[in-house]
């Protein structure tokens, strides 16, 4: 890693282009040498600092190739790490929503997503809570005056596009500061919905669009939403509960976020090059190796939770697949499982299939004090 050029001088600070190497095979450690324990959340940039919000998993062992209902389920909190360069991470807080410790011994908490509302000057977090998920149409909501928190719970969002929220939620903020929540439902038919929030992001407008719906298994989890050259994209995948083999990445696109969504293509094939089947009988089945959960994995053997959209320089916006590689840690501890960060590549408007990268290099802008 090295500085390659100084870009400009302003108000006693410099912006320099720095080359960094991102690894998917070396454990991600913080500046104190501890494992970064922030999973299934989001990676965002506020001002010139990168913020990673994620679920703090316990130092437990997942007992099977899929979730066991214990490890990764209870005693979760939400952590915040920051970095100037996507490589050097500092733990700010491992309990940034303090209220979750009141009941996290039996309520499940996952998937913190944070955005900044320029109108209200508030930082807003949505997250998944078993207090609401699989029970009703509510999505947990918390706010803070700074990105460092602490975040305080407020009245949850009551979504209008489904009666029962399922297992994933995402926050997407458009260029005009309008916020949307993408979620999946347990209503019949099962569907993924994107729904517009009010200008203060505290309620829904009731305006929504159905991205995709189907009657039968496999259900689909959600990855992330992003926008590139005026086109909106969302990534969905086989229902996967902490699965060892990972899941696919089916991309849907729309020219209007509340308009008609169409299937765009598959991005994450099985590691042997085959496309996964359209149907499997249960989420306990490895789609790439029907009779062997320890057989062929997906090319990127991860469960996707988000797409990070980061302005890494004045000339480049990075769209990056953001997923969890369950049962991947060397010591078997869930808290130490690897994440998969994979740049999403375009040729024109065509998305290219994902490739698992041990390492990749980015040129990013960083601030230097003078």
Report on the architecture of this protein.
The chain is an all-beta fold and 370 residues long. The chain has a single domain (2-369), classed as 5 Propeller (Tachylectin-2, Chain A), CATH 2.115.10.20. Helix content is 0%, strand content 48%. The chain has no helices and 24 strands. It has strands at residues 2-10, 13-23, 39-46, 49-56, 77-83, 90-93, 109-117, 122-129, 138-144, 152-158, 165-173, 179-185, 190-197, 204-214, 220-228, 231-238, 250-254, 262-266, 303-311, 317-325, 338-343, 346-347, 350-351, 359-369. The strands form seven sheets. A four-stranded antiparallel β-sheet has the order 3-4-5-6, with no helix packed on it. It has a four-stranded antiparallel β-sheet with strand order 7-8-9-10, with no helix packed on it. Strand 3 and strand 4 (49-56) form a beta hairpin. Residues 1-17 form the signal peptide. One of its GO terms (molecular function) is hydrolase activity, hydrolyzing O-glycosyl compounds. InterPro entries: Glyco_hydro_43, Glyco_hydro_beta-prop_sf.
């Amino acid at each position: 890693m090295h500085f390659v050029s100084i870009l400009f001088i302003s108000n006693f600070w410099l912006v320099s282009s720095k080359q960094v190497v991102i690894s998917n095979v070396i454990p991600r450690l913080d500046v104190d040498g501890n494992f970064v324990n922030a999973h299934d959340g989001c990676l965002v940039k506020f001002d010139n600092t990168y913020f990673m919000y994620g679920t703090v998993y316990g130092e437990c062992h997942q007992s099977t190739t899929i979730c066991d209902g214990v490890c990764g389920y209870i005693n979760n909190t939400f952590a915040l790490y920051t970095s100037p360069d996507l490589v050097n991470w500092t733990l700010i807080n491992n309990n940034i929503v303090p209220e979750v410790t009141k009941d996290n011994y039996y309520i499940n908490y996952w998937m913190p997503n944070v955005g900044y509302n320029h109108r209200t000057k508030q930082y807003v977090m949505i997250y998944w809570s078993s207090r609401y998920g699989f029970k009703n149409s509510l999505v947990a909501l918390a706010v803070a005056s700074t990105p460092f928190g602490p975040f305080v719970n407020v009245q949850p969002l009551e979504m209008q596009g489904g009666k029962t929220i399922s297992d994933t939620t995402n926050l997407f903020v458009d260029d005009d500061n309008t916020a949307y929540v993408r979620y999946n439902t347990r209503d019949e038919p099962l569907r993924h919905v994107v729904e517009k929030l009010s200008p203060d992001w505290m309620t829904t407008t009731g305006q929504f669009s159905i991205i995709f719906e189907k009657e039968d298994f496999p259900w689909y989890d959600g990855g992330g939403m992003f926008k590139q050259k005026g086109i909106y994209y969302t990534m969905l995948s086989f229902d996967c509960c902490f699965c060892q083999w990972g899941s696919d990445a089916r991309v849907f696109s729309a020219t209007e976020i509340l308009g008609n969504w169409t299937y765009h293509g598959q991005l994450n094939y099985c590691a042997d090059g085959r496309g996964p089947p359209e149907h499997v009988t249960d989420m306990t089945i490895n789609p790439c190796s029907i009779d062997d959960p320890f057989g062929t994995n997906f090319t990127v053997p991860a469960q996707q939770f988000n797409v990070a959209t980061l302005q890494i320089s004045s000339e480049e916006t990075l769209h990056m697949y953001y997923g969890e590689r369950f049962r991947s840690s060397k010591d078997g501890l869930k808290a130490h499982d690897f994440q998969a960060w994979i740049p999403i590549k375009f040729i024109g408007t065509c998305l290219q299939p994902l490739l698992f990268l041990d390492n990749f290099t980015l040129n990013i802008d960083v601030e230097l004090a003078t």
